[in-house]
Design a protein that fits this description.
59% strand; six-stranded antiparallel sheet; single chain; 0% helix; globular; Jelly Rolls; mainly beta; 2 domains; 19 strands
């Protein structure tokens, strides 16, 4: 069983954006300590305080999901997407010019970035109190409890109680994730990441 790490997201450093439009908390990055030019994958939570452009990230696939707030309108060339419903992921290419216009006040979102050809990923969302068994094939798994509380079990290992604002990081392959139940308002947002095998590119 891999070592598990549970973090309180709000206890992580909030790094202000250069344009003053918000802050970002980095949940995890691979390789450890990598910057924007050399990461293979990166997961973060952003608090967006004002409208403005997204940073251009050529060669990076992005997926974003609204966690809190009234959301924002994402718009650009051949793109218009209202990111206004919580827990509904939206994927786009990092090189696509995107402007974000807030629909109301500040919002919080979770971002998954994967280097194209080196890794691929997706965001999965689980909601409600009913137990669920989800088969996963991954090289890294990050689960963020966005609302309520729930009990999570990986493979045949120990159970972990997560409450809103907790993140569970599993930095090794896992074959199964079991949500054993929780509060009726529970919402889990997971970044599921696969690395490309050595000498190959991720599909």
């Amino acid at each position: 069983m891999p070592e598990l790490t549970v973090l309180r997201v709000d206890a992580l450093p909030a790094v202000p954006w250069k344009n003053g439009g918000g802050t970002t908390r980095e949940l995890a990055v691979f390789p450890a300590g990598a910057g924007f030019d050399d990461f293979v994958w990166r997961v973060s939570v952003a608090d967006v305080a004002q409208s403005g452009p997204f940073s251009a990230l050529p060669g990076v696939d992005r997926e974003i999901v609204l966690l809190e707030g009234e959301g924002m309108l994402l718009h650009g060339e051949n793109l218009t997407h209202p990111l206004v419903k919580p827990f509904e992921p939206h994927a786009f290419a990092g090189e696509t010019p995107v402007e974000a216009t807030l629909c109301g006040g500040a919002t919080r979102d979770l971002n998954l970035m994967t280097r194209r050809g080196a890794a691929r990923g997706r965001i999965a969302v689980w909601r409600g109190a009913q137990p669920q068994a989800i088969a996963l094939e991954s090289d890294a798994l990050l689960v963020y409890c966005a609302a309520g509380s729930t009990t999570l079990r990986l493979d045949d290992g120990p159970s972990w109680q997560l409450r809103a604002g907790d993140m569970l990081h599993v930095p090794a392959p896992t074959a199964a994730c079991r949500v054993q139940g929780g509060s009726t308002d529970a919402a889990l947002v997971a970044a599921v990441i696969q690395l490309a095998p050595a000498g190959e590119e991720a599909a």
